[in-house]
Specification:
alpha/beta, Rossmann fold, five-stranded parallel sheet, three-stranded antiparallel sheet, 8 helices, 33% helix, disordered N terminus
Length: 259
């Protein structure tokens, strides 16, 4: 069941959108001979490469792979298959400030969780009442997309799990950071962001909000995720459904404890 909309004084997850300090650290590149200086042929090829960097999570019954968009399902399916892990879809929608339509002040997730940036809302003097309509609309959009992709397939339980959050690329990292905060509130024991390509400063920022961030390629300048794929078409709805179905039904058993 979706969580009720919080009021202004409601307790919320830690702010995942706090502005980062200037990036001065080393690249987080963990690639293994990524072809053509970091280019990938397709998202599925990127998923095969990403799975190699995530080998420590293979054959563990506490690991869940979550794709954060339909396009990310193509990456995440290869990761889950290589690791022998469960796969699920975890959609998000950004919540924009009414006076700044391109500025995200939070996200809503497909399981009904709301993560808002208290700092941004305070800076904009933006009360929760003014973003309520945007949240309601985002929830309706996510419900529609969930029905299109998931049908009757149950969501995987996240409590006590090690969750690998997979995107096809990081631009601002807002969705990834918001999703990380949301799955923590769902009870995830460990949260790892995993992407084939991302801006170096964004990968560093995401890493500070998760237990780890595996980013295969961190080009500078970045140009956006699509610039690093030979093919970057949006997947068809039936393609997403088939990949989720191939991952099997959501099991009922609880994960085994991990040290």
């Amino acid at each position: 069941m979706p969580e009720p909309l919080p009021h202004d004084g409601a307790r919320r997850a830690p702010d995942p959108y706090a502005p980062p300090p200037p990036f001065t650290g080393p690249s987080l590149d963990r690639s293994r001979d990524v072809e053509s200086r970091g280019r990938f042929r397709t998202r599925r090829d990127a998923g095969v490469a990403l799975a190699q960097a995530l080998g420590a999570f293979a054959n563990r019954d506490d690991v869940v792979v979550l794709a954060l968009s339909p396009g990310a399902v193509l990456v995440a399916h290869e990761v889950a298959r290589a690791l022998h892990a469960r796969l699920d879809l975890y959609l998000t929608a950004t919540v924009a400030a009414p006076s700044h339509p391109t500025l995200a002040v939070g996200i809503v997730t497909s399981d009904g969780r709301i993560v808002l940036s208290r700092e941004l809302m305070s800076r904009l003097a933006l009360p929760f009442a003014l973003v309520r309509d945007a949240i309601v609309q985002a929830r309706a959009d996510l419900d529609r997309r969930e029905r299109a992709y998931r049908a009757s397939r149950a969501r995987l339980p996240l409590r006590g799990r090690t969750v690998l959050l997979v995107c096809d690329g990081l631009v601002t990292g807002a969705r990834m950071r918001g999703a990380a905060a949301a799955v923590r509130t769902a009870g995830a024991a460990r949260v790892v962001a995993a992407v084939p390509v991302g801006a170096p400063e964004v990968c560093a920022l995401v890493r500070r909000g998760t237990d780890d961030c595996v980013c295969l390629h961190t080009p500078k300048p970045y140009y956006g995720a699509g610039a690093w794929y030979d093919e970057f078409r949006p997947p068809r709805d039936d393609e997403v459904r088939a990949l989720l179905a191939d991952a099997g039904p959501a099991p009922d058993e609880s994960p085994s404890p991990r040290g």
